Amino acid sequence: MRFTRRTLTAALALATVAGFSHQAVAADKPKVALVMKSLANEFFRTMEDGAKAHQKANAAQYTLVANGIKDETDTAAQIKMVEQMVAQRVQAIVIAPADSKALVSVLKNAADKGVLIINIDNKLDADALKSKDLNVPFVGPDNRAGAKLVGDYLGKQLQAGDKVGIVEGVSTTFNAQQRTLGFQDAMKAASINVVSLQSGQWEIDKGNTVAAGMLREHPDLKAIMAGNDSMALGVVAAVKAAGRTGKVQVVGYDNIAAIKPMLKDGRVLATADQYAAKQAVFGIEMALKALADKKKQSELPAEVKTDVALVTKDSK
Q1: Residue 107, phi-psi category: left (phi > 0), alpha (psi -120 to 50), beta (remainder)
Q2: In what helix (H) or strand (E) does residue 300 lie, and over which residues does it extend?
Q3: 182 with 148: CB under 8 angstroms?
């Protein structure tokens, strides 16, 4: 009996040491949170899949917690998500903010608690960041340049003086604003008139409703530019319902899988590829490097540009 107790005591001691050892190893492997916008949008599902594949291939280097909100405009839910990630003691948050300004305060709180913040997809507002004395690197494409590529291609199919509409994303987001500016740059260069600009809030149904209204109000409309491909899907449906397929050109942005057959058969003229599967990975890799180098938030670069490319039916 005495031997058994000693054996049990030794076993417990070894288990305790092993436990501490395991905790030490776990502590050395950073936990990275990926906080996205609506996972109803295929772009963000593709982003999540890319991030998970990267983590699986680098499982010894870090763990990943991926979350997304249900609605593109539900900033309150995304704010709570960030707070939950801080409570779970993640070392870094890679975020595609639903609103360029509304997320800054909660991200400042996270940074003050030692969490590294990396911004992807939708750029945080520069003035809002400055007001909080917060430096957050933006890792992503030039949305204005990407939208201009698409707009320039559309412009070559139209004539000077033609009328077009723009279905914008959530108007308070930086990437929506930049894509609209890119479309407008292209239309101005081609002497084409933008007669309507309305928000479809990044969503298929809202994009459809807005496009249907544009088509009724402007029966001579020649094209509609959508700030993302989800809204472009809604625009295509509206054009079909109005009996104007082939008469009203549609362009989008994101190059999601659902848009590819429409590019092939001409229902969508062009889109822009900003490599959704790599977007989060670029941010995650930057976070991991900064953590490994023990870089402070204030020491990170303000911006890291990634690629964006025009996609048409002729693209390979």
Answers
A1: alpha
A2: none
A3: yes
Instruction: Give every CB contact of residue 98 below 8 A, 6+ residues apart in sequence.
Output: 37, 69, 72, 73, 74, 75, 78, 122, 170, 173
**CA proximity to 284, closest of 58, 38, 81, 51:** 51
Q: Is 246 helix (H, G, I), strand (E, B) or coil?
A: coil
21, two tokens? 């050892």
- pTM for the complete prediction? 0.84
DSSP 2-66: HHHHHHHHHHHHHHHHHHHHHHHHHHHS-EEEEEES-TTSHHHHHHHHHHHHHHHHTTTT-EEEE
Residue of 243, 259, 261 lying closest to 251 (CA atoms): 259
Q: Return the structure tokens found at 209.
A: 């409703």
Express each pLDDT in 267-296 by its tens digit: 999 999 999 999 999 999 999 999 999 999
6-30 exposure pattern, b = at least 16 Cβ within 10 A, e = fewer: eeeeeeeeeeeeeeeeeeeeeeeeb
Question: Environment class of residue 57 by beta-carbon count within 10 Å: exposed (0-12), middle (13-18) or buried (19+)?
Answer: exposed
C-alpha–C-alpha distance, residues 155 and 171, integer Å:
24
Give φ, ψ of 35 to 5 degrees.
Answer: -115, 115
C-alpha distances in Å from residue 264, one per residue of 126, 268, 269? 39, 8, 9
Helices and strands, number each (H, E), in the chain: 11, 12
CA atoms within 13 Å, Cβ hemisphere of 274: 30
pLDDT band per the 50, 70, 90 thresholds, residue 9? very low
- The region, left, alpha or beta by phi > 0 then psi within -120 to 50, assigned to residue 221 is beta
Query: In this structure, what token pair is assigned to residue 4?
Result: 């058994």
- CA-CA-CA-CA dihedral for 95, 98, 104, 105, to nearest 10: -110
- The CA distance from 21 to 114, in Å, is 24
